[in-house]
Amino acid sequence: MAQKAIGILTSGGDCPGLNAAIRGVGKAVRGAFDNQIIGFRDGFRGMVENRIVRLDNMALSGILTLGGTILGTSREKPHMMPVGGRTMDMTDVAVDTYHRHHLDVLVCLGGGGTQKNAYRLQKKGLNIITLPKTIDNDVWGTDVTFGFDTAMGIAAEAIDRLHTTAESHHRVIVVEIMGHNAGWLTLGAGIAGGADVILIPEIPYDIESVADAVLGRSRAGKRFSIIAMAEGALSAEQVEAQKEAEKKKKKKGKKASPEPHMLPAEAASVHLARQLQEMTGLDARVTALGHLQRGGVPSPTDRLLATRLGTTCAELIEKEKYGVMVAVKGEKCKPVPLADVAGKLKLVPPDHAWVKSARFVGTCFGD
Ligand code: F6P
Q: Which pTM value belongs to this model?
């Protein structure tokens, strides 16, 4: 088969395992299939600006265990890119770059937003393959995303460490965990770390129920509590207020905000701690883990997963199977149509097996 030219970029928030995936794709397309590969810097921005990195053997070597992305990343979208103080549709420029390098396929590593942006380019006639990455684990169509395992390990370790100080001071500690509008990271880390209360966006909470759980522990002789709270978690009241606000906006013909959960998130954990301190009489503190969860060395599980997804991507390129995301389905890495993935989110079903397990060991979800 004729040699192919491959472009690759990383887009959206970084996460551990991106370099392992770049290496997996790069080594396999070059070594096993004798193709050429170039990288674009800083996501779609680099593609629009034609900023490339040659991914030769040297560039692909020694990066398996490296956090972040050697290509750099950004959250920029080709169809809405800030240029000289204005927001412009630069899709055609990205398409030109693809053709200028005579690419046969563009590989995009990213989360939900990237899947959507990559699909937009596919609709412009480009051959696209995507890989699912994000600490949030919320990409539709795949059992799991790389980056999630590492972040869950970091958050679980933080909960472990917070246990000893919470217990010594008889405090309530609210640990704020990332995840955007999905609760996977908080749920996984919360169960693994033995959090007493887990609050996730998919299960609106009632403050009375959370306070009852904390007081119940005090009565049982446990004078401390750890609350794992997702950055997007909302009380039932807040959910109602948000629905009302959206209804009003729609009536007025305004577009409802696309990410209504994000704005009050940080304040929400502080607010929760203050409420619990008042209601329980226990001293309360907040620890927001923030970007710590995205940094550093990927776990062996993420290195393995990213390598498997990357090398499967190379096999799909060889077969010219484009327009797909490489997904994890059970034991296998399989292509799923990008058209099916774009624009969807994988949230925690409130009756998910993990939620059920947590309830069995006495975890409170505040509902
Ligand atoms: O999508 C990954 C993620 O870390 C989310 O969990 C979080 O809400 C968001 O990115 C933070 O974005 P930024 O790094 O742009 O602040």
A: 0.95
